[in-house]
User: What shape does this take?
Amino acid sequence: MENKIKKVLSCILILYAVLAVAFYYLAGEQLKYKEAVEKIAMPEADSVTDEIVKGMDVRQEFVNTVDRIESATLVFTKFYREGSGNLVIDLLEGDRVLMREILNIDEIPEQGSVVLRADRPIEDMKGKRLSFRLYSNAEENRSLAAMMTKENVLSDSRLYVNGEPCEGMLCFSVDGTQIIHANRYYWFIALGVGLILAAILYSSYRSYVRNNRANYLIRSILAVFQYSFLISQLVSRDFKSKYKRSVLGVFWSFLNPLLTMIVQFLVFSTFFKADTKNYPVYLLSGVVCFNFFKETTDMCLSSISGNANLINKVYIPKYIFPMAKTMSSTINLGISLIPLLLVSLLMGVTFHKSLLLMFYFLACLIVFSLGFGLLLSAFMVFFRDIQFLWGVIVQIWQYATPIFYPAEIVPERFRFIIRLNPLYHFIGNLRKCLIDGISPEPMAYIYCLVFALASLLAGLFVFKKTQDKFTLYL
Amino acid sequence: MAKKMIEVKDVSMKFKMSSEPINSLKEIFTSALSGKLQYNEFLALDHVSFSLEKGKTLGLIGRNGAGKSTTLKLISGILKPTEGTIITRGNIVPMLELGAGFDLELTGKENIYLNGAILGYSKEYLESKYEEIVDFAEIREFIDMPIRNYSSGMMARLAFSIASVVNPEILIVDEILSVGDAAFQEKSLNRMKELMSGGATVLFVSHNLEKIEEMCDVVLWLDHGKVRMISDAKEVCRSYKKEQGLKKK
Assistant: This one.
């Protein structure tokens, strides 16, 4: 037994090390940079410059707030005329050209924005005085003018036309990312957490071997050894009795999310297709995740009360029941990932290394659902009304989560509701890994972990407090 | 002195029974708010103490509602006592209600594994004892059939076979000796005796006084949750019969 525990404990430590290293490489750029907080936003235009013709030189100076510039945008108007000739836009630092864009005036749409994109982010630009310089070779009445504002002028910005200072400011925005400073300490943090983990594991092992006192950790490991067979039996019972008399059997786990997705796709695609990148995959990933949450909590809800006759007759640790239910729906989730990945492939999603990070958010989702399952199964024993109430709550929750609609359509003043919704974070980050092929920013991992652990701890706490009373109420 | 396998020290068990059934959240809230949430307390066991040495068989007798089943449930860990402590040493096999974990949709074979797991057997153990269980239950030709097609006798036989295949250190039995037909009853009784002679400590509830006298070393007589008498089997049974006889008159 001691050897077994030793093995498990060292496995935990090795697993941690592997994950810490793997995460560093999988998360890639997103671990180092995040979306800049102080972006320069596009102001509302209320006027325009003079027509930018041959020989004219417009210069907009400003103080940059973005750390790593990735793009800059300007807006133009052609006064609804045809144009010809070229327009040159430079982004300068002093006399050094950071970005240059040479455009055919004819190709710029009316009131269209022109985006300058850096091939590689321009590093370390925060606080620097930069300027846009605009000039062209177009004849009069064939050129365009830049949109500008007189109301929303940034402080420290100056507009010069042909070297003369002018009132107002061009309408422009600067977008980019900023360095996450904590990243520099990634290895220190990872090592520190690793050492703490090692210390905890070692001290629990020692106190077990020396004083034969099992702490929480050791006890859970022992329980896993002792009850893994029972859990596997309960899980296989769930599957066997669920599909026993159906013709398609386990295939339904595969088919169910697909059919839901198709129905919702037919209903909602006309509304949201345009706003959303790869709508079918967006939809299906949401459906798969939410269905898992719904299925797990539904099954856990009745897991204690439904096994009343067993609990009253044989001693089994009661947490086994919600855990077995969560396990069986986790297997279901695993099966429904197959259609998700197939549909992604069919819809032309290219898989990046970030795909593996998806499993982190799935793991958080599973832990979160287990926590809720424990909570609900305990409540259910005392108040049977929960089963009806929960059905309603789940339905509200489903509509409050961006599953079939994009999160962007929610008005800003209601966004906070969405941000407080753990399922939005799990699903949203998973979609980022799957569809966008990039890792979310590091804080997203921490948020999700906190949500998952909070739910689990609340569930365990309530369950532990009440479990001795279960038999009295069943 | 022989090792004490079960020690029950000053154990009380209270059940709260609400005077009227409260079944909904609303009722709980309204009655809790108005301070009317009242429970009638029912004392199922009242400061009961006893202990049992290794290899001994204890019979529990008493009228319905005297607290016999509660005692068994407390010892097997299903219930937690309101007061007092219970110490048990060794693995317990409770035969309280056989086949409690059966799933009617599964086959006999699958149920052997499921029920065995519920009773705490390991996978290796079940695999090694599988043949023995099937043979003892005499259901070999139906083993791959869903047990919803079984007769109640077959189900009971299967349940008894699974429960009795181990050699438990503590065996808890609640009126299960009337399993199946006469032949199987005989067989199961023999199996029980085999387990007892194999060194198991047994707790035994029955209303059949002859059987109690035949099988038990010590008998505990419970009366309204209190220990009325605990002593040699013959003696307790005699007094018990005497009182029951008196009541009849």
In short: The two ends of chain A are 36 Å apart (CA to CA).
